[in-house]
Structure formats: structure tokens, C-alpha cells
Amino acid sequence: MTETTSCPLIRIVGLNKQYETDAGAFPVLKEVNLEVAAGEFVAIMGPSGSGKSTFLNLLGCLDLPTSGDYWLQGREVARLDRDERAQLRNRLLGFVFQGFNLLPRMTLEENVGLPLVYARIPRQERRQRAREMLERMGLGEYFHSIPSRISGGQQQRAAIARALILRPPLILADEPTGNLDTRTSGEVMAIFQELNHEGVAVVLVTHEPDVAACARRLVRFVDGRIVHDGPATAEALAAHVQAVQRVEEREAGMGSTSG
Ligand SMILES: Nc1ncnc2c1ncn2[C@@H]1O[C@H](COP(=O)(O)OP(=O)(O)OP(=O)(O)O)[C@@H](O)[C@H]1O
Ligand SMILES: [Mg+2]
């Protein structure tokens, strides 16, 4: 299939994912459909265990679905071999994780430049591009610092710099503010919003309604299914909070009935 700019960035149809466990097949994602266009800002919410990280890993081609179809910028992911998938990932995606995932013994400059090593960019250019990106994230003083010497918010900004260094059109972030205090979390979200205004699509998993409110579109998962896909309004965010309460009550054995 050829790539065109008119196809959605993400197109998922009838996607299922089950994990094989000792107790048998364990379905986690059930008949999920989703389209995301270039430049969108989507928040994904849902109770713990509803399948959000599993879904994000599938979006990021880190895992394959049990069944269903996934086209990433018009390429059918399941038809690609491992190397082609890795190339597609490098070209289209940047990842940001809750735990920052920076390499502890490398400087920020080295961490941020790492994707350029895999892309075979020469050292001098790597250094220059890593520094530009760190400066942009307000980390101009920390080129030679190792991650443990800077704050959590600074580490997350460095991780965003690393995710952006190959200029991908899509950033996937799994609870990127989960380890940050409210103020720092606000700073990190301002960066995602700025990137989005520049045309980068953002798909971000979060438990925090304040964070999700930064997105324009909200997708809610409950028990592996999408139960809402629409504007990130106050009502939609409130419905998420209620869904979490229902699941917590159910798990506490307090027995809410309908679902
Ligand atoms: N590799 C695996 N093998 C078996 N089961 C798994 C595996 N990974 C996740 N699960 C299960 O799949 C379900 C969904 O997990 P997932 O991590 O996607 O949830 P989540 O919505 O991201 O939750 P949280 O909000 O707590 O991060 C959970 O019940 C989890 O225990
Ligand atoms: Mg998760």
C-alpha cells in the first residue's frame, strides 16, 4: 500500500489483544476501533487494568495484536517484518514513559542523541542536535549532567527531547506526568501543547483529569473496550472519574450491578 498524506496517521479496526497466561487466554483489548489524524491531541483514560498501556504499546508497534488491523500512516503494521517495523517506529514515533527511562550513566546530551546513533547520524551532528533540543526544553545548562542530578520534571523534559530528536509526527506518552508534582506536570503539559500546536500528533495516557483536559479529544477505556470517543469536555472527564469509582467498588466486592 502506498503512503498518502490523506490517510489517517492511525487507523485501527476490530483490534483484539489477549495475553496467554497459565490460567489460559486473558482478553485485554476487545474490538477496538480508532482513527487518529495527523496533528490531533488525544488523551486516553480508563481504570487501572483497562488496557491503556497494552493499547499504547500496540500503537507504538512494540507488540502485535491477537487479531484486527492496524495501519500506521497507511502501512499495515502486521505485514511488516521486524526490521521494517523498527524503521517505521523510528521514523514516525517518539515515546515518553512515566519513569522517564533515561540511561543513568549517560549525560543528557548522550541520552537525547541516542536515537541519532541508531539512525547513523555522525557524532558532531548528534551533539549539535541534542543540544538544540535540550535548549529548547529549557535544559541548556545540563548537557553534561547525568539524569540522577536533575529533578523529575527536568528528566521528563529530557525524555521528551529524546522522543522528538528524529522529528516524528506522533508522540505516544504513557502517564508522562505520573511521577511529577502538579506544577511540574503543568510545565510538561505546556510542552506537549506547544508541540501539538506545531503539528505533532500526541496520544497520551493519563489518570489525571487536569492532564487530559489539555487534549482536544478524549478516548475512554473500560474493560478493554472504548466506551467514549469525543471532545475532552468536563462531562466526559467526570464520566471517567465515575467509571473508575465503579471499578474500584466492584473490585472491593461492594457489588455495583449494571455496567
Ligand atoms: N504481559 C502480560 N501478560 C499477561 N497479562 C498482562 C500483561 N500485560 C498486562 N497484562 C494484564 O492486562 C490488563 C491490562 O493491562 P494494562 O497495563 O494495559 O492496563 P492499564 O490500563 O495500562 O493499567 P494502569 O492504569 O494500571 O497502568 C491487566 O489486567 C494486566 O494485568
Ligand atoms: Mg498502564
Integer average pLDDT: 93
Unique bound compounds? adenosine-5'-triphosphate, magnesium ion
Distance between the termini: 40 Å
What do we call the CATH topology of the domain at 10-103 and 168-251?
Rossmann fold
Provide a count of the helices: 8
Helix-strand category = alpha/beta
| Biggest sheet character | 6 strands, mixed
The helix content, as a percent range, equals 25-40%
Low-confidence stretches: none
Rg value: 19 Å
Tally of DSSP β-strands: 10
Strand content: 25-35%
SSE order, one letter for each helix or strand? EEEHEEHEHHHEHEHEEH
**Strand order of the biggest β-sheet:** 6-7-8-3-9-10
The CATH architecture name of the domain at 10-103 and 168-251 reads 3-Layer(aba) Sandwich
The CATH homologous superfamily of the domain at 10-103 and 168-251: P-loop containing nucleotide triphosphate hydrolases
**CATH first level of the domain at 10-103 and 168-251:** Alpha Beta
State the shape.
Answer: globular
Task: Describe, in plain words, how this protein is organized in 3D.
This protein is of the alpha/beta class. It has a domain at 10-103 and 168-251: Rossmann fold (3-Layer(aba) Sandwich). It is 37% helix and 25% strand. The chain contains eight helices and ten strands. It has helices spanning 52-59, 82-92, 108-118, 123-136, 152-164, 182-197, 209-212, 234-251, and strands at 10-21, 24-36, 41-45, 67-72, 75-76, 93-97, 170-174, 201-205, 217-222, 225-231. Strands 6-7-8-3-9-10 form a six-stranded mixed sheet, sandwiched between helices. Strands 2-1-4-5 form a four-stranded antiparallel sheet, with helices on one face. Strand 9 and strand 10 (225-231) form a beta hairpin. Helix 3 (108-118) packs parallel to helix 5 (152-164) and helix 4 packs across helix 5 (152-164). The mean pLDDT is 93. Bound molecules: adenosine-5'-triphosphate and magnesium ion (MG). Adenosine-5'-triphosphate is lined by residues 19, 21, 26, 28, 46, 48-54.
